[in-house]
Amino acid sequence: MSSPLPSSPAASVLDLAPVVPVVVVDDLADAVPLARALVAGGLPAIEVTLRTPVALDAIRAIAGEVPDAVVGAGTVVTAEQVADVVAAGARFLVSPGWTDALLEAMRGSGVPFLPGVSTTSEVVALLERGVREMKFFPAEAAGGTAYLKALSAPLPQARFCPTGGITPASAPEYLALPNVGCVGGSWMLPKDAVAGRDWERVERLARAAAGLSAGGTSR
């Protein structure tokens, strides 16, 4: 599969796959085989979080060695990080929250971005600034499917990628909502599988996640 995300800033991360893996890379040597396993399982959009010292190098490695991956950067909280991750090859940006300065940097990056929200006022503020696609975080703690369902009537133009506490069991409930394009999660990357470099297991779990749909457990 060729890279499915066009270079246009208008391209949507929300439509690549039902699940975006949220990846924490502790060992740089794991980055490429992990990404290959996720892509082989049908999850091309991979959010590498900036939570470890090797995260930037992991993005660079995946961008350079896994051409079918659409690698993005998560936990982006400063304008400097925006510049660094785009230079490393990130093709989309995800933040846990936003400020006007961060939003300006993400908008100017030339790649798609999902600023984080957890309240109605934050959603309205982003809509006012012309942003319609957002990360809803922390999804379960912030009200889950009930909250997003309540937002869909007064703010139908907003679309979300909920992340935080979502499981294979709850993902279809989120995906059933009209304002949810995809969900973010890490359940396809159990710590013991990554520690043991069991990439076949990661691929199997990724394939199951890629098959999730609004109606049940598989497409």
Question: What does this protein look like?
Answer:
This protein is an alpha/beta fold. The protein is 36% helix and 15% strand. The chain has 9 helices and 9 strands. A 4-stranded parallel β-sheet has the order 3-2-1-9. Strands 6-7-8 form a 3-stranded parallel β-sheet. A two-stranded parallel sheet has the order 4-5. It catalyses: 2-dehydro-3-deoxy-6-phospho-D-gluconate = D-glyceraldehyde 3-phosphate + pyruvate. One of its GO terms (molecular function) is (R,S)-4-hydroxy-2-oxoglutarate aldolase activity. Its EC number is 4.1.2.14.
Which tags fit this structure?
219 residues, four-stranded parallel sheet, alpha/beta, three-stranded parallel sheet, disordered C terminus
Which H/E pattern describes the elements? EHEHEHEHEEHEHEHEHH
Give the averaged pLDDT, no decimals.
Answer: 93
- Shape descriptor reads globular
Which percent range fits the helix content? 25-40%
Topology:
Blueprint: E1 19-23, H1 31-40, E2 45-49, H2 55-65, E3 70-74, H3 79-88, E4 93-94, H4 100-107, E5 113-114, E6 116-117, H5 120-128, E7 133-136, H6 144-152, E8 159-162, H7 171-175, E9 183-185, H8 191-195, H9 199-210
Parallel strand pairs: 1-2, 1-9, 2-3, 4-5, 6-7, 7-8
Helix pairs in contact: 1-9, 3-4
